[in-house]
Amino acid sequence: MPYSTPPKNATLKIEPFQLQVPDEEIEHFKQLLKLSRLAPQTFENNQTDTGKFGVTHKWMTEAKDRWQNQYDWRQREAYFNSFPNFKTSIKDDKTGFTFDIHFAALFSEKTDAVPIVFLHGWPGSFLEFLGVLETFKSKYKSSDLPYHIIVPSLPGYTLSSGPPTDQDFKTDDLARIIDKLMQGLGFGDSGYVAQGGDIGAYTCRCLSHYSSCKAIHLNFSLMERPKNLNQDLTVEEVEQRGLKRARDFGLTGSAYALEHGTRPSTISFTLDSSPIALLAWIGEKFITWTDTTPSLEQILDSITLYWFTHSFPRCIYPYREFHGSSAGAVYIHSDPKYHIKQPLGYSWFPQELAPMPVSWVKTTGNLVWSKRHDAGGHFAAMEKPEVLVEDVESFVKQVWKASGSIASSL
């Protein structure tokens, strides 16, 4: 398969991977889905606006029917497998735990290709970036691709193993595993660029502590208003509307995060017991957190993969760190400990959950590139893959030229 040859200097044992859920698991899922009942109609679920009280009865009815009677997992599986997928084992010296890490990738044949790791969040997965991979494939052949594109499944998410069950595991630990992956792929000396949104953005902040991470691009930076009054904190009119969206989300849309952070065990048992429960909990996020709602097929892809891999109980551990009972209002993007010294880029999308003003983000690191867009939401890679690719390419070309280590062909 094109784009599937890892760098020759990789030190990790890298195995090609094909996703294939056993037939018996698919049949069991179909039986559970058929037997799972929907809630009766109520005043709340008869509203037309999902953002008011949650998913509607109409949407749930149509989604269940599509899932049960038309959705073809094997067909979707074949699509996922049309991209180069890999697995590798990473021994973590700190925890003593060996992680089974999955990643999709487009490897370039160019010796001077720039490595870029794209990091998803919750309730996402590597599937968020399939449109990004498609965009790069349409623009470049493997022989002239200027980048190595790496899209890991974060530990605990879908096809990567979860964190240890006998000790705590936090975002700093998550970043350590990603850095080990990138170094093991042969990018320790040349360095790499990290890109992320949601929990992936938190992970990028933590990656800033690693010398092999040379630059960072974010499309999410939830933070407090900077306290340094000596800096220019001008907020454009369009950004004012973004701040209102952030305030509204805090008041009416963030209860899920408190549940994840304070009672992760309870919500995990709840959502891992019923496909319909998982559909409601995650489906709502794809509808209300976006500017352009992904197709129902894309939403079902993500939820079905979560179901088959028992992802939900294994992947919400970061919420204890930032939304747990003892966490308080913790904003890693505001924390001086995670001030980014590397070149930082920031893409602003108006329907992000909390689209922070560019001037605010500038106080959190060495911001050298930014762009405000007039459309797009929380799942930028799914909603606007071509736009995100264009942003990341623009940022990478600028910062690598500035550092003198970019390929001359760029």
TrEMBL record:
Record flagged with keyword Hydrolase? yes
Q: Which residues form the Epoxide hydrolase N-terminal domain?
A: 14-129
Q: Which InterPro entries match?
A: AB_hydrolase_fold (IPR029058), Epox_hydrolase-like (IPR000639), Epoxide_hydro_N (IPR010497), Epoxide_hydrolase (IPR016292)
Q: Which GO terms describe its biological process?
A: epoxide metabolic process
Q: Name one Pfam family in it.
A: EHN
- What molecular function terms (GO) are annotated for this protein? epoxide hydrolase activity
Question: Has the keyword Zinc been applied to this entry?
Answer: no
Going by the UniProt record, its keywords in alphabetical order are:
Hydrolase
Could you name the active-site residues?
A: 198, 319, 378
Tell me the protein family, please. Belongs to the peptidase S33 family.
Q: Please report the name of this protein according to its UniProt entry.
A: Epoxide hydrolase N-terminal domain-containing protein
